[in-house]
Structure formats: C-alpha cells, structure tokens
Amino acid sequence: MKKFTLLFSAALLCTQVKAQDSLTIRKIYDEALVNGQCYENLRYLCKNIGQRISGSEGAQKSVDWSKKLMEGYGFNKVYLQEVMVPHWVRGAKEEAAIIDGKTRIPVPIVALGMSIATPKAGITANVIEVKSIKELEGLGESVIKGKIVFFNRAFDPRFIETGMAYGTAGDQRFMGPAVAAKLGAAGVIVRSLTEIIDDYPHTGATLAAPGSKMIPAAAISTKAANKLSAMLKMRKFPAAKFYFKQNCQLLPDVKSYNVIGELTGTENPNKFITVGGHLDSWDLAEGAHDDGTGVMQSAEVLRIFKAVGYKPKNSVRAVFFMNEENGHKGGLKYAELAAQNKEQHIAAIETDEGGFTPRGFSFADVSKEFIKNINDKYKAILEPYEVDKLTIGGAGTDIEPMKETLPGVVLIGFRPDSQRYFDLHHTAKDVFENVNKRELELGAAGMAAFIYLIDQHGL
Q1: What is the distance, to the nearest Å, from the Cα of residue 138 to the centroid of all Cα atoms in its chain?
Q2: What strands, in cross-sheet order, belong to the sheet with 314-321?
Q3: Spatial CA neighbour of 303 closest among 19, 31, 18
Q4: Nearest in space to 70 (alpha carbons), one of 266, 303, 351, 294
C-alpha cells in the first residue's frame, strides 16, 4: 500500500509539473506574440546602424547600442567582454568581366572576406574550371600556374536541410583559394554558395595558413557562373579571358567586444544557460537574417522571462558574439573566460540560421540514447508550438569552442526552416524587409520555452 501511495504521489506531482510547464510556456508565447520587441529592435539595428563587419564603425556602434538596450531591460548584469578582432576592409566596389575577343561581358562579383587585393589594374587571365579541390590538385602546377581558377560546384538540391548543401559545397570557398595559390594560380573565382539562380554574388570568409601565399579571391553570381561555364563548354577559351579587380586590405587587429546580458540564477548563480548569436555581419547589406535576427531573439528571451515574472533557477545569459564571420574570436574569448572563471555551463544555444519559422533544435556530439530521452521528455510539450524537432546535428560556430574548455556543456543549435536562408545569406539582399515579424517572434518564444524547460528539468 505504501509503495502504491508513493507511485501515485509521484504521478500526481509529474502531472502538476507538466500542467505548470504548459501554463508557463503559454505565457511565454503570449508575451512574444502580443508584446514582442525583437522585430522593432531588429529594425533599429538594421536601419540605424546597418552593416557591422568586425573592426568597423558599424560594429562599434552596434556594441554601444546593444549594451544600452539590455541595460534598459533591467537585466541583472550587462557588460562587455573585450576581444581583439580582425579588421578587413573591402574598399572600392569590385568589378569583373568575361572578355571574349573585343566583347566585355560584365559579371557581378564580390571579394571574399580576408582576401587580398588584385594589382591596381586588376587581373586578366585564362580560366580553368574545376568542381572540387581534389580535381584542382589533380591538374597540378603545370596547368594551373598563371591561370584564374574557377570553382563551380553547385549546391546539391537533394538535401532537404539546405545547411547540408552549404556544408558540402563550402570547402571550395573556405580552402580553395589557398590550395590554388600553392599551385601558382593568379587568382580564384568561386560560384556563390546558394541554390538560387540570380545575379547577387555571396561573399564569405576564405582561409589561409599564417605566412602562406595568398592570391585574390572573389565570388561571382550563380547566373554569371552558369554563363562562364557554358562559354567554356563551347570551347571559346582560351580565346576568351576573365578579368577582375578588387581593392580589399587586411589592417591590424582592433579592440572590440562581446555584449552580454544576464538574469542571475536564484538557486545556482554559477550554473549557466547561454543563448546567443553574432553581432557582426558582412558589409554588403544590413546583416538582418545573418545574424541580426539571432542576437535580437537572444535578448528577447531574457526580456520575455522578466515580462512574465519568471526567475530562472540557473543563470541565463544572452551573448552577442563579435567576429563570427571572419575569425570567430568572440566565441573563443567567451569559452576561454568561462573556463578561467570556473563557470559551470549546462547548455548553450546558438541562433545563426536566420529568423525563419522555427522547427526545433539540434544537439551536437550526443548519442542516439540522449536524443531519445530528450524527445521523451520534451517533444510532447513543444509539439503544439511546432518547435518539437529534436535531433542530432550542428550547434553553432560561436559556441563550439565551449566543448573544449567546459566539460559537460550541451551545445544546441536553434533550427528554423532553412529553405530561404541561402537565397539571402552573405548578399546585398540580407535586409530588414526580408524578415517576417511573426516568424521572428515565434523563434524567440520557442527558444525561451526550451530554455525554461532546461532550467526547470535539465538535460
């Protein structure tokens, strides 16, 4: 009889807990959808500050404004975390053309982040088209030397999750120019990393080992890539050539900051749940989806908690990381200082896939058993809000360094619908007008709800 009573009491308590959770989550969503502020905050960030590439005046303005924003919300702690960041400058607008005899066909082009400039007169050379780094290496120096290497591997449309297509196509931009430089190429042009066919080139960082040779590298639009490839197939080359000119430069590192707001835990002040995105953006537009939406959603999570009167047991931080796009220095510094301060981190959630309709969360470096337990625990309560897809997957560049310095932390990626993200990613189209208010607010509410559950019941 005693055993039955204990089981009945436990079941009753579980029912009451679930009922309380449901009520709190409903309040969270009501606050986000009726009184949400992340959309108007994003408008200010995009329209009054604009592009925020690391080291720029816009980046510093965004730091100052973000700190005041979180102070205005009355979070328990708001502070800056100093970090040295790269200062790469694009310079005057790039230009490019296919030169077919006496005909010049203009090509939309943008320099890749961290690339060097061309000579003042630009580069004009024959083109070698390749689909992979392996193919490039197979051609060897005798073929590549003095040429412009054209990486033209398109997105694989078979992936349902478009981030997978980005991942499998991305090495040609990340590492391709460095490999081409070793083989004596004069320059590199890369097909923009997107499935959409248009005339908007996509920038993004390219990598080179310290001290290694660098060559000018740029991305051309997908329409231009198709045209150039078609001309190559028509055997118009080597009669035709490619020309491009860019004026970028890498200046000495400068001081910048991560911006951090915190609601201090009532029971475990030295245990932390982090939610964040990156404050910096590329310089072609306003950095709306990448990643203005992410940082504004992160601050909104804490604002919602205060608005509904929820006082977390563990400390919850909103972190606006600096320098995700071309160096990751903000994420490295945050992880370093968290370990140095002997903080215990329960979980870190990154939102850096745009402000689209929320679908769920992915967990990095966890077992299938862990995912099963998470689904058993939380799927049913998240399902009415359509944010219940809980899977193994990536987490985020800014929070990734934490796994090396903070044992036990669970790294989580916020996963919105991905179908439109790479239409806008790293382009001049990434502006406030392309963000949907309701989708943005639903994402903020979904993260707040999940953080509430982690705070109450753990992982």
Answers
A1: 33
A2: 77-89, 249-263, 314-321, 268-278, 344-350, 410-416, 358-363, 389-392
A3: 31
A4: 303
Spatial separation of the C-alpha atoms in residues 38 and 174, rounded to whole Å: 32
Which CATH class, in words, describes the domain spanning 28-88+252-457? alpha beta
Angle between helices 293-308 and 57-72 (to 10 degrees): 10
Identify the CATH number of the domain defined by range 91-247. Answer: 3.50.30.30
Rounded Cα gap, residues 443 and 292, in angstroms: 13
Residue 6 is predicted with a pLDDT of 45
Q: How far, in Å, CA of 189 to CA of 224, rounded?
A: 11
Compute mean pLDDT per 10 residues along the chain, 459 residues long, and list them. 48 58 97 98 98 98 98 98 98 96 94 97 97 97 96 96 95 97 98 98 93 94 97 75 97 98 98 98 98 98 98 98 97 98 97 98 97 96 97 97 96 97 98 98 98 97
Distance in angstroms (rounded) separating the CA atoms of residues 385 and 361: 13
Q: Please give the single-letter amino acid code of residue 393.
A: G
Closest residue by Cα to residue 188 from 167, 219, 213: 219
Q: Which of 185, 15, 204, 203 is nearest to 109 (CA)?
A: 203
168 DSSP assignment: H
CA–CA distance, 30 with 35 (Å, rounded to integer):
8
The residue extents of the domains of the chain are 28-88+252-457, 91-247
pTM of the model: 0.94
CA distances, 403 to each of 189, 300, 406, 450 (Å): 35, 25, 6, 20
Place of tokens 């078979």: 158
Between the alpha carbon of residue 245 and those of residues 108, 128, 179, 437, the distances in Å are 12, 18, 21, 39
CA distance 413 to 355: 13
Structure tokens at 96: 């490019």
The CA-atom distances, in angstroms, between 268 and each of 111, 272, 336 are: 47, 8, 21
